[in-house]
Write a structure and sequence with these properties.
Elements (H helix, E strand, L loop, with lengths): L3 H14 L6 H11 L7 H9 L1 H11 L1 H16 L6 H22 L1 H5 L5 H28 L10 H11 L9 H11 L4 H26 L1 H7 L1 H26 L8 H17 L6
């Protein structure tokens, strides 16, 4: 059974890292291992998925007005073709972009919660995906220099699908869901703020489905860790994630995601050293 302090720490880690391009799953895997827990234990895996609901609740609160606007635009567009404007198209981009990760996550569930739950995977994914972030930012710089970076009104359903396919890579611990989706948006020519907001919107169906599925499927294992501790983790992740969302949106309006690359590489390298030296075990 988790202690309340462990629940608080995991909630903080989830809230801080869910929307930053540093991999929440990777950080939670490292943190649970350092706490002496088994990273491939079904209960631990389910717990880290369920406390994501706190981060999703923060997204609903922060973007509540925009989410309602998209839902109404989508519903209105279905009823009346004359009402199919930019918000209708953006809503479809989010819907279409949410499908790939759901399908891949369901088909590869046992692989994701089993063999991929290794600190070796986390370490190398942190380092290797940093190269993708660098490439995406370099490509985005060319779009900005040419003055052709696209805004929210120019997002297409195809963009949603491309970003959704990239989101599938985030099922590998260490890649980072936001790192994958924002990078895909930047590489597609979408400006950095809009790409970041799209990443938040795509997180809602993906993480909500994952959290609910794990809560229902692994409820016996979760109970052994403590339901009150689960509630604490969700609340803490909600509070911290809300602050994290606000900070990241301000950050990306003036800075590149390259700022996160040194941290990712150093953390990945540190984990590799710890594993090679025998200070940590992979699972």
């Amino acid at each position: 059974m988790l202690t309340y302090w462990q629940a608080v720490i995991l909630g903080i880690v989830e809230g801080l890292t869910e929307f930053l391009p540093v991999s929440s799953t990777g950080h939670l895997t490292i943190t649970t291992k350092m706490m002496g827990l088994s990273v491939d234990d079904p209960g631990v895996t389910a717990y880290t998925a369920v406390i994501q609901l706190g981060a999703i609740a923060a997204t609903f609160l922060y973007f509540g007005k925009k989410i309602i606007q998209l839902v109404l635009a989508w519903a209105g567009g279905l009823r009346d073709a004359d009402r199919r404007g930019h918000d209708y198209q953006l809503a479809w981009a989010v819907i279409v972009g949410s499908i790939p990760v759901g399908l891949v996550g369901f088909v590869l569930k046992d692989v994701i919660s089993g063999p991929l739950r290794s600190l070796w995977v986390v370490a190398f994914a942190l380092i290797l995906w940093s190269a993708v972030i660098w490439w995406a930012e370099k490509r985005h710089d060319r779009f900005e220099a040419q003055g052709i970076a696209r805004g929210e009104n120019e997002v297409t359903v195809k963009d949603g699908l491309v970003i959704g396919l990239a989101q599938c890579f985030a099922l590998i611990p260490g890649v980072s869901r936001s790192g994958a989706t924002i990078s895909a948006g930047l590489a597609s020519g979408i400006n950095r703020v809009v790409a970041t907001e799209l990443s938040f919107f795509l997180a809602i169906p993906a993480l909500t489905a994952a959290g609910i599925f794990e809560a229902m499927h692994e409820k016996t294992h979760i109970a052994t860790l403590g339901v009150p501790q689960m509630a604490v983790g969700i609340v803490v992740s909600f509070v911290v994630a809300y602050a994290s969302i606000a900070w990241l949106l301000r950050f990306v309006s003036h800075h590149s995601l390259r700022a996160f690359i040194p941290y990712r590489v150093l953390l990945g390298g540190a984990v590799i050293v710890a594993l090679a030296a025998g200070w940590l075990s992979a699972t």
